[in-house]
Each structure stands twice: as structure tokens, then as C-alpha cells.
Specification:
The chain has 12 helices and no strands. The protein is mainly α.
Length: about 300
Amino acid sequence: MAMTNDRNSTSSDIKRRGQLGIIWRQYRKNTLAMVGLIVFLLLVCVAVFSPVFLDYQNDIILMNNKIRLQAPSAEHILGTDQYGRDILFRIIWGSRVSLVVGLFTVGVALLVGGIIGAISGYYGSVIDNFLMRIMDVFLAMPATIMAVAIVGALGPGLINLLIAMSIARIPQFARVVRSSVISICGQEFVEAARACGTKDFRIIMRHILPNCVGPIVVQCTLHMATTILGVAGLSFIGLGIQAPVPEWGSMLSEARDFMQTNFNMMLYPGIAIVIAVLSLNLIGDGLRDALDPRLKK
């Protein structure tokens, strides 16, 4: 019996690696998706390793009025802001904030929304109606408006921003997971697992959710892009990350008063937002195509 289980586990691992290889080969055929992946990985590397070559106190928040509002130069590649702080350094550090908020928000929303969606889709009936009606209440309000309302009630700040953005994304993940679970619950291998007396938790975790990975991964990339935009928007109106911590949206807000005289203060943070969001959208489109069985030969 042990040898049989080992053989089944080995064959399952080989099959899984083969499927991942097929998905990767399909993904590599999409040039724009590869460009998006490379750009996003570069952003991640910059965010992770920025504390190695930047000092937060001296390079990011220290004010120097002698060099305020300078144009791009060899010493300050993107120029300086109204307080004499290097714009490039602040954009690099701001990537840490945007990526951390995006990853945390998507992670929490996926965990909570995935549990709700899996339970709702698997059991159906009264449980499904109860949970989905609650999700409908949240979905009745746009995610950004809901985040604004939550942050407005709790107050601005990083922790409150994380809570608000996470709560706003939970219903969408719950809907995606629920629809995927419903489409898989009727498959023969699920019925076979039930007939063998397998517990519901094991069926959901072992047989159903692994087959829902495709749409869930695509949703993660797309929601992370919208989260970065949402964080920038909240910071722009003063409800997100507070000064002096650099964040792309707050940098845009500070640059409004100098839009005509120092346009570079607004241009470069805006470009950073566009690059991050575009790369994630390209990754999501590439994953969607690679995971679509209708496109595989």
C-alpha cells in the first residue's frame, strides 16, 4: 500500500510538472506578457533591494532647501521636489509601499474570499444564498468607494489602508472562486472522491481548489494592478499613505502646485504607476491565454 501511494504521488508530481511546462511554453509565446513579467520582476527587485543602496533618513525624507525644485541633472537624474528631495529615490522607495500594499491586499482578499467562495460553491443551497447575499451587499458599492468610506471612518494610515483595500476586494474573489468551484463540483473525480468517503475539507483542498488555480491567478494579477491604482488614488486625496513616507499617489498630489513650473515632479510618479499597472495587466492577459485550454494544442 505504501509503495502504491508513493507511485501515485510520484506520477502526480510528474504530471503537475508537465502541466506547468506546457503553461510556461504557452506563456512564453506571448511577447507582451514576457515584457510585462520582466518589467514587474525588475520592479520587485528594485523594491526589495532599495534599502541596500538607499538610506531612508538621508536619501528619502531629509529636506534640503538649497537644491529644491532642481531640473534633472547628473547628480539628481529626475530632479528634486519642493523640499530638495531626490525624485528618483522617492519613486524607488514608493515602489516598496505600492507592492507591499498590493501583495498584502490580494493575499488577504484571496484567503478570506477564497474560503467564502469555496464553502458557498461546494455546499450550495441555504449556505450559498446566505453568503452570496452578504457579498452582494458589498458588491453593490464600488471597491474604491468602499475603500474611501472605510479609510474615512478609520482614519488615514498604512494599517487602515490595508484593511480597507482588503475588505473591498474580498467579494470579488469570493465570486470568482465560487463560480470555479461550482463548475468543478459536478466532475466525475469529485463524485468518486465522495463515494470513497473522503471528507469535504480534503475534497475541497485536494481536488477542487487546485483545479481553480487558473482563474484565481489571473484575478490576482489584475486585482493587484487595480489595488495599486486605488492606493495611489486614496493617497492623492489624502486618505492613504501620509507624508513624509513616499508613495506615488501622494507624490502626484504634492506636485499639483508645481505643475506649470516643474512638470517633472508629476510626470515621473505618473509614469511609475503606468508601468506597474501595465506590467501586471500584461502578465494577467498572458496567464489567461496560457491557462485557457482552448488555446492549447
